[in-house]
User: What shape does this take?
Amino acid sequence: MIYSFSDNKLDLKRHVLTRKGENIPVEPQVFDILHVLAKNAGSLVTKDQLIEAVWEGRIVSEATISARINAARTAVGDNGRDQRIIRTVPRRGFEMVAEVSIQEDAGPQALPELRQTIRYAASADGTNIAWSSAGEGPPLLYAWHHLSHLEKDWASGLLRRGLTALAERHRLIRYDIRGSGLSDPINREDGLDEHVDDMIAVADAAGLDRFPVVATLQAAAVAIRLAARWPHRVSRLVLHNGYARGRATRENAPEASDNDPFIALLKSGGWGDPDNGFMRAWATMVLPMASFDETTELIQLIAHACSTEDALLQRNLIDKLDVLDDLPKVRAPTLVIHTRMCTIHPAAEGRRVAAGIPGAEFLEVDSSNTFLISSDLAFDRVFGATLEFLDRDEPT
Assistant: This one.
């Protein structure tokens, strides 16, 4: 369905806003606000109705609502003074006052749903790495954390919205690292350089010469090492809750692995079991802002990601990562985004990365989640900033 108003078209199927024929980038929540207002054009939409439709009833501040409304006005060519399209009804809500026409989906001729294609690339040591491609446009390599599964993540309610936001603007390239998902198992002797080789192998297989990278958690260290050693390959870096040194190399590291809750979980035999107390406690620590059902989905996702043995090998490698010496060698424009209240990888680790990379930008957002999920109130800000940074012209 397409809503048309004042030179704007809001395409629900493609999740795209155009103004005078040009695509206008908008954050997912801003798009949802425009949908609610267009659907109820000519009628008052109360703040409670807006919160229920866009934020699924979660508590949000007046400032958050105002910021999203202002962003919606800007996107459709309106402003708070003129209010030609979106009118504020003081203390009550909002109304779309522009005339709206509706065009139904074109049936079989409508644009197809985004789908991904999975292939394999051989790394330098022969390890088979599963990678996928979805969407069209400028390429983007998206490096996820160590517990991934290309198929399960793509269909996940926790992750799909973020993946779609990237794939609607880019040819999105993802991959399962060795020891995870559809890729070959990890070897005990594998280290950071093998993971860098995997990232290069995926880029080569996808036909990427120079490309931007969005990396999450431990994948940030891999991307940093790649950008430092092969600067001609990486055009931009966006790091979500990334860190340059693993937990075992930090000041307050546990003196023994037995004190590590993740290791205790793996040894408890409850890996991937939503009813296991250790498993649920760990998942809650990873996503403290998630609901009970979202925590259950996270547990089910990582159950598909890898075995207990591979998870132990991954943890041993990840906790000892150290790319501090690589930071000053990175030449790619870099945006570092970190959640302010993350307990597993504190915001100080993100600041350390931003301070170490010449010219890096830093954005700290209000969340305690270790990675961003669809329901997180910081989701729109993080993915909006990511897309805006990726869309900038490359420096000469």
